[in-house]
Design brief:
mainly alpha; globular
Length: about 130
């Protein structure tokens, strides 16, 4: 990756990290000097209890739904969650992002439907006009 691309990725990671853990936790992790390397962001998130707890909670929710729907990969996700090593969970989620992405795509296809807004509009047509 070229230096300019690395910088763009780093800026994106920092923006997403700030959004996912909040400004206070972000400042506690990085202080006034944001990291200059992508690996520093990963290492800091592995040490962030709020980030780790949110990650575990979200993965557990995805795993429960994926398991109930018998999606491919759900059992592997549950294996990740069976380990009590939360920092390891970050590594697994990063390395296994393809699996997570595939599960999320399948959930999106199964659960989200363009007809939901239609039903909401039929339920309350006046509210739909206000939007």
């Amino acid at each position: 990756m070229k230096p300019a691309e690395k910088q763009q990725v780093l800026e994106l990671l920092l923006r997403l990290a700030r959004k996912s853990i909040g400004e206070q936790e972000f400042t506690a992790l990085f202080g006034n000097e944001p990291p200059a390397r992508i690996s520093e962001v990963t290492l800091a998130l592995r040490d962030s209890k709020p980030f780790l707890q949110t990650l575990r909670n979200r993965l557990e929710a995805v795993g429960r739904v994926a398991g109930a729907l018998e999606l491919a990969g759900a059992s592997r996700l549950m294996e990740w969650l069976g380990d009590d090593c939360d920092p390891c969970l970050v590594d697994r989620a990063v390395e296994g992002y393809g699996l997570l992405y595939q599960i999320l795509l399948e959930l999106d296809e199964l659960l989200l439907w363009t007809g939901w807004p239609l039903l909401g509009t039929l339920h309350d047509p006046a509210a739909a006009l206000k939007e």
